Amino acid sequence: MQAIQSRLATGLILSLALLLLAQWIVISTSIHYLSQQYISTRLVHDSDTIIAALTITPDSPGISLIENQISAIYKQPFSGHYFSLTVAQQSLRSRSLWDETLSQTTIPVGQTSTTFTTGPQAQQLMVLQSAYQKQGQVINLAVAEDISGINRDIQDFLLKHSTVSFIIFALLVLLQILIIKRSLKPLEKVRQDLQKLDAGEIEALSEAVPKELKPLVQELNLRLHAMAQRLKRSRHTAGNLAHALKGRLTLLTQALNSPTIKADPTLLENLNRYLNDLQQIIHHELMRARVAGAAIGARQAKLSPEIAALVNTLLTIYNDKSLKIAQDIPEEATCAMEREDLHELLGNLLDNACKWAKQQIFIRVEDNHCLCFVVEDDGPGCQENQLASLSNRGVRLDEQVSGYGLGLSIVKDIINSYEGTINFDQSTALGGLRVTVNIPKKRTNS
Q1: Residues 315, 401: one domain?
Q2: What is the distance between the alpha carbons of residues 117 and 113, in angstroms, rounded to a whole number?
Q3: 276, 254: one domain
């Protein structure tokens, strides 16, 4: 999520920054151009006025200006408006120049040129130079205007414009980030639904999502439904196969009662052993087929009532031993395991404890960063070398401890399927065997 938000926000910021920069350049260039065009037009008008006021006579002084036709601004010292003209070897300057001069260059008649220079009192001048012909004489005229004030006004405007643009830029970025977060909120909802699905709180993803995400969610739900149906079919198939084999084994068992088979005790003993092995294998594989493992979408099961039901069942089965099964199970503890897997796991652990216990059994559940089941009994327990081998992954438990049968082997298969761990040690409280099972709440990605 952060990567998508960062990419969109970065793209937006760069786009807005480039847009505002381009806007600033266009506005700045346009304002300078328009102001110069305006001043240039005014200088052309003043040039025409000065040329019109110029008189050329053969007598001394030869050239003069009709003063009342010249704007008074050219008569104020350092007013920012200046002119200088040259006819042959004679020249005239505006009074505003006082004792300063205005640089001129010679240009062809009928042409103009615009330059920028520093004038009196460090004024920034825009100079328009023109060449005219009047009464047969070539006139070079330079008219200048101080543009310092206009430049300051332009800078002030651009500064204000930049400040406003930056504020707008910041607001747009903030607004767009909020829009991006709001737009990506459905993705966060899907992510939360996936977590709930993994925890077993829901069975399918909610399809109340934008139309762009709906096909993806629907496809995921279809896959989840297909996986559930496939698991159900596998269990049914394994169960049907096991029951079909059991029926045939029953017929074989009955055939062992025939006089021909009974006449050979060695053959009868071997056949009974083989049939017993086959029955154990079928039972074992049937139990394995029932293990669902850590499947996505497993419903949360409340442990307190489930364990209470198992305890009551076992107390009924072992009522001749007068067992006492103490429980320490938080009311709010839940487990995202398939119900059949949970019953198989705890049922086998408690059943083994009941077989070996003298009188006391204790089951405790801890619900922290992982789900922990602890089952203890006051039976004979196991020797230290046997405990070490029982904890090894891949060791068949029924081959290590006599009398435990296939139950703990199925337990280990279930624990492995949920990426959990099992540990065997001596119970300090009751003196018998203590079995500790840890089931992670969140599975690692494989």
Answers
A1: yes
A2: 13
A3: yes
Q: State the average pLDDT over residues 260-273.
A: 75
How many domains are contained in the chain? 3
Single-letter code of the amino acid located at 293? G
**Model confidence at 439: pLDDT above 50:** yes
pLDDT > 90? residue 45 = yes
Most confident of 25-29, 255-259, 409-413: 25-29
Q: Which domain holds residue 104?
A: 2-151
Residues 317, 429 share a domain: yes
Expressed in angstroms, the distance from the first to the final Cα of the chain is 22
Last residue of a domain, one of 290, 319, 342: 290
**242 and 323 together in one domain:** no
Calpha distance 278→274 (Å, rounded)? 6
**Parallel, antiparallel, or unpaired: how do β-strands 137-146 and 81-87 relate?**
antiparallel
**pTM (predicted TM-score):** 0.47
C-alpha 209/C-alpha 234 separation (Å) is: 33
Q: Which of 57-71, 140-154, 213-227 has the highest mean pLDDT?
A: 140-154
Nearest Cα neighbor of 112 from 80, 143, 147 is: 143
pLDDT tens-digit series, residues 76-120 = 999 999 999 998 888 889 999 988 888 888 888 889 999 999 989
Other CB atoms within 10 A of residue 57 CB: 10
Amino acid making up residue 54: L
Record the tokens describing residue 183, joined without a space: 């737009």
Residue 128's identity, in one-letter code, is L
The reply to whether 284 and 365 lie within a common domain is: no
CATH of residue 354's domain is 3.30.565.10
Phi, psi of 440 (to 5 degrees): -65, 145
